[in-house]
């Protein structure tokens, strides 16, 4: 089985975390961001992650991939309340906007990018969010918004999100805010950092392992 992914992508991180938690072996393929042909050949669109199963079928919806892989419902997706899922999805939408605005100018300098893919990434993302230099200038606005939303999360952290055991909600939340570890000088509140590290441990997750392993 193969996972085609970007290292920085929250939806790709979702699948990587789930694969680690479920102890599923797979081939990790980090695609250059400017590679349009590979994802289109597999699913018809340029959207990652893409997971190719043993039967050769490829899927590019992160939660669908996880649901198929989690045959024993370890992440309790089937039992979780749908209204609670809506609450989590709304929180992720708020997190995602700020995290992307804050981190994209820094993600592009990580090892997964070369000169060509970096230029492609910046050009594409600036169409939606504006010039990266403006994002950096407005960092305080995004940081204040992110911290405000983060404090909506903190009261719900037990050992995990409203739970003593890890669920799909934790993978959804952790993958969306993990990128802030790369933002210069940002420090998560202790409650959130400890929570993220618990998720990391459960999922055997290592953000840049694809560049460090033999």
Mean pLDDT: 94
Alpha-carbon Rg, integer: 17 Å
> What's the shape?
globular
Stretches where pLDDT is under 50 for at least 5 consecutive residues are none
Task: List its traits.
214 residues, alpha+beta, Glutaredoxin, Glutathione S-transferase Yfyf (Class Pi), Chain A, domain 2, 2 domains, 4-stranded mixed sheet, 10 helices, 4 strands
Describe the structure.
The structure is a single chain. The chain has 214 residues and is of the alpha+beta class. The chain folds into 2 domains: 73 residues, Glutaredoxin (3-Layer(aba) Sandwich); 121 residues, Up-down Bundle (Glutathione S-transferase Yfyf (Class Pi), Chain A, domain 2). 55% of the residues lie in helices and 6% in strands. The protein contains 10 helices and 4 strands, in the order E-H-E-H-E-E-H-H-H-H-H-H-H-H. The chain has a 4-stranded mixed β-sheet, sandwiched between helices. Helix 1 links the parallel strand 1 and strand 2. Helix 1 packs parallel to helix 3 and helix 4 packs antiparallel against helix 7. The longest helix is centred in the middle third of the chain and has 26 residues. The chain is globular, with a radius of gyration of 17 Å. The two termini are 19 Å apart. The mean pLDDT is 94.
Question: What's a concise summary of this model?
Answer:
By secondary structure, this protein is α+β, with helices and mostly antiparallel strands. It has ten helices and four strands; from the N terminus they run E-H-E-H-E-E-H-H-H-H-H-H-H-H. Helix 1 runs parallel beside helix 3 (62-69), helix 1 crosses helix 8 and helix 1 packs across helix 9 (190-203).
